Every structure is written in structure tokens, then in C-alpha cells.
Amino acid sequence: MSQHETEWPLWEVFIRARGGLDHRHCGSLRAPDAEMALMNARDAYTRRGEGHSIWVVKASDIVASNPDDKGSFYDPADDKVYRHPSFYQLPDEVDHM
Amino acid sequence: MSNASSQSAEEARFQARIDAEDKIEPKDWMPEAYRRTLIRQISQHAHSEYVGMLPEGNWLTRAPTLRRKAALMAKIQDEAGHGLYLYSAAETLGASRDEMYRDLLSGKAKYSSIFNYPTLTWADIGAIGWLVDGAAITNQVPLCRCSFGPYARAMVRVCKEESFHQRQGFQIMLSLAHGEPEQKAMAQDALNRWWWPSIAMFGPPDGESKHSAQSMAWKIKRHSNDELRQRFVDMTVPQADFLGLRIPDDDLKFNADTGHYETGPIDWDDFWAVVNGEGQCNTDRLAARQKAHDEGAWVRDAATAYAAKRAARKAAERIAAE
Ligand SMILES: [Fe+2]
Ligand SMILES: [Fe+2]
Ligand SMILES: [Fe+2]
Predict the structure, then answer these.
(1) B82: which residues sit within 8 A by CB, 6+ positions away?
(2) What ipTM score was computed for the predicted complex, to two decimals?
(3) Interchain CB distance below 8 Å, A27 and B25
(4) Please, what are the domains in chain A?
């Protein structure tokens, strides 16, 4: 048996620095379950009041896009210039828009 | 850098991204040698953070005041955190945490040889914070712009925390340097012993550093060993002057033309002897790591057992509810 198999699962840690902000990815850690992951995240990533809310997510549960299809995955947005305000020319007389 | 003819199209695209200051993320294509170089460097860096706790732990129970003790404890906890950030960054490249840790315990893995020197007096804790953390900061600040995203992000967090380390060390030196003659002598003695190993921390001179050119091309490294060493010396000599302590180098002088301090020759034979296991504390550090690992086994086992028990209970509750 390789020792690899006994490794605890990997958890990704997200922290909200203060109310009104998004949770932001700040790192990862290994822990045997979610509750201990949360406690370890508090100890490792909020030693100086860096956050007031923590999410831990099992890394194996994250579904990620593939960096190789960078082009084709996103190009449906490339030819839709009309989604940007700069596409619309306004008469000089019109303000506040 | 490999020459254009031997570079595959993929390698050329990769290098173009690096040249454009694009960051490389774990799932992006990368040359195997880039991956290997980073795993080696990041894991060695992680090991250094970990082993760096040991010389300081030596004085934790004998800190002169409760405040000093609390500050030293906080610094040591930070170093454990730095180790964690870095092991995690290495894992994004496919390195196994357990394997890295096994290599550290077996003595196979290298770590900064500065931690193989003993901490003989309380003043050494001051000298370590001031000089060793100071040198580490000088090394780590440019790493915040390293081409590999997870390493760069880990370094941003590390650097934020390091400046407290250096200040707490300098403050210890300041108190001793302004204290009784015996205290000042203690501070001078610590500086005498830590100065040369600290400036050797930047690694061999540029001409002899084997990985440098490729690492610079890949923007893993941004400055040469000698450049960083010079930066550190220029910052530190005036600080020693302020403390009223003498840098133990008869050849040290300020060159008014270049605006830089020039040091005498570094004893690289001593440096390599310590790297190769002949330092005063290599064996001690290894034994301390093994002891911590062995004595912590029951904690890891208990945590695993507790998690399994709760998972089983949850599963039983789910079945009962169905
Ligand atoms: Fe550190
Ligand atoms: Fe460090
Ligand atoms: Fe530090």
C-alpha cells in the first residue's frame, strides 16, 4: 500500500474578509473531514483577523473548465459587441447615460 | 534557455506567455523541467519554513518575558503556516504531500542550511529575526512576481507576515544593544556567528549557480544570487551601525562610486560542508522532526478515527430517515 492512499482529502479554502465582499479563494489544506478542515482553515488563514466567514470545499468536488479550450469555450462572447455600452453612440446633447 | 531549434511549438508558446508576464496556472501546459524545477524549489522552501521553527523553539520556554514569549510563539506559528502554504503550492504541480514529508524525515530533502546552526543564547533569537528573516524577505519579495501563480500568491501572504518577524528580531537586538555591557556583548556575539551564514543564504555566487539562467528565463527567479545578497548587505550594514554593533568583516567597506557596500570573501567551503550534512545541528534537526512526527501520530490517528466515526453515524441517520 502506498502511503498516498492514507492522505487526508484536500480542501480549498475561501474567506470573506468582511461583510459586503465576496468569498475569495485563499489556499488549501488537508483534513480528515469538513469540520476539522474549517477549524484548520481558521488557524492557518485567519491568524490576524483576515476573515469573518470561511467556506471549505473538497477539492475533488470542484468542477473546473479545461484551460486547453480557452478559445472555443469562450468565443461565443467574442462577436457580441452589442453587449458593451461602447457599441451605442449617443448624440452629443444626451448626458447622464 | 534552450535554443530555438530544439524548442517545440508548445515550448515556444509557453515561453512567449512567460515573456508577456502571463502567469502560469497548475492545469496549463508546462515543460516537464519547469514543473520539476518548481517542485524542487517550492518543496525545499516549504521544508525550510518547517525546519526554521526548530532553532527558535529551543528558546521558547526560556524567553525573558511573557510578551517576548507570546511574540516568538506567534512567529513560530507563522512559519508553520508558511510551510503549509508552500506544500499546498507544490501539490498543485502533482507533488504528493506525504512523499515530500517522507523526504524531509529521511533526510533526502534539502532545506536552507542556515537552520543547521545552533541557537546558543537568547540574542540568537534576535539575530535570526533580524538577519535570517531579513534575508528571507529579500529573497521572497521578488518571488511574489514569480511566473507560477500559486507560488506567487503564497509568497504574497508570506511576505505580509514576515515583516513582523524581522521587526521583533530587531527589537530584541535593540534592547540588548542598549542594555548592560554583558547584554551588548551577547548581541555582538550573536551577530558574529549569524552574519556570514546569513549572507551565504542567498546561495553560491552567480558564476557557480547551476540552475540560475534557466530559472531567470522562466521568471521563477527575478534577480541573481549576488544581486539579492548585495541588496541585503546594503540594507543591513546601516542597521548594524544604528545598533552600535560591528559586522564581523575586516574587509567591509562602502564604495562611494557604486553606492554599495563591499564585503570580504565568503567561506563557501563552510557553506557546502553544512549543506552536505556537516553542520552542527543537521542530526539534531532530523531527530527533532522524527520525534515530532512519531509523537504526533496518535493525534493524526485520532482525527482520522473521529472523522470515520462521524461519517458512519451520519450515514446511519440518513438510512433511518429514509
Ligand atoms: Fe517564513
Ligand atoms: Fe521563508
Ligand atoms: Fe519568518
Answers:
(1) B46, B49, B158, B161
(2) 0.88
(3) no
(4) 3-63 (3.10.20.520)
